[in-house]
Design goal:
With about 150 residues, this protein is α+β, with helices and mostly antiparallel strands. It has 7 helices and 5 strands, in the order ααβαααααββββ. It has one domain: 3-Layer(aba) Sandwich (Protocatechuate 4,5-dioxygenase, Chain B).
C-alpha cells in the first residue's frame, strides 16, 4: 500500500510458474473464481485493474504496421461479443468456443487476467469495449471496463 497515494493498491502476480506450466497453475475457471473472491473489495473503493492482451501470439508476429491477421480479428470480434453479452461460460471455455483460440493464446497468461476482471465485477457483469488496436498483426490490444 502506498501511504501517499489517493487510492490503495495491491499488486497481484497470477503466474509465478514458468509459462509452459501456466494452465496447470491457474486453470481458466480459476481466474474467474479469483476475481469473484476479490469482488467485495470494490465495495471498499478498490479499483481492480487487470492487464493482458485480447490476443497474444508472439511467434507469428508480422512487421510493425501490418494489419491484423484474419484469425486475430475473428477472435477479437468473438471476445468483444462474449464480453459485452456477459457470457462467462463462453469466456471460460474460450479454447473450445473462441475461433482459433489456441493460436491466439498459445498460453493463457495474457488471457486469464480478463477472467479475473470479469469475476471481480460480480455475477452478471457485462463489459464495454473502451479501445481496440492491433500491433504486429497478432496482438489485439482491446480494453474493457466491467459493470
Amino acid at each position: 500500500m502506498d501511504e501517499q497515494a489517493d487510492q490503495n493498491r495491491l499488486q497481484m502476480l497470477s503466474s509465478p510458474t514458468p509459462l509452459a506450466r501456466w494452465r496447470h497453475f491457474l486453470p481458466d475457471e480459476s481466474g474467474l473464481a479469483l476475481g469473484r473472491a476479490i469482488a467485495a473489495l470494490r465495495d471498499d473503493g478498490v479499483l481492480v485493474l487487470a492487464s493482458g492482451n485480447a490476443t497474444h501470439n508472439l511467434s507469428q508476429r508480422a512487421p510493425p504496421g501490418a494489419p491484423p491477421f484474419p484469425w486475430v480479428r475473428a477472435f477479437d470480434d468473438w471476445l468483444v461479443g462474449r464480453v459485452e453479452a456477459g457470457d462467462d461460460a463462453a469466456l471460460v471455455d474460450y479454447l473450445a468456443q473462441g475461433p482459433d483460440a489456441a493460436r491466439n493464446h498459445p498460453s493463457g497468461d495474457h488471457y486469464v487476467p480478463l477472467l479475473v476482471a470479469l469475476g471481480a465485477a460480480g455475477a452478471g457483469a457485462r463489459g464495454r469495449r473502451l479501445h481496440t488496436s492491433f500491433l504486429d498483426a497478432t496482438l489485439a490490444m482491446t480494453a474493457f471496463e466491467f459493470s
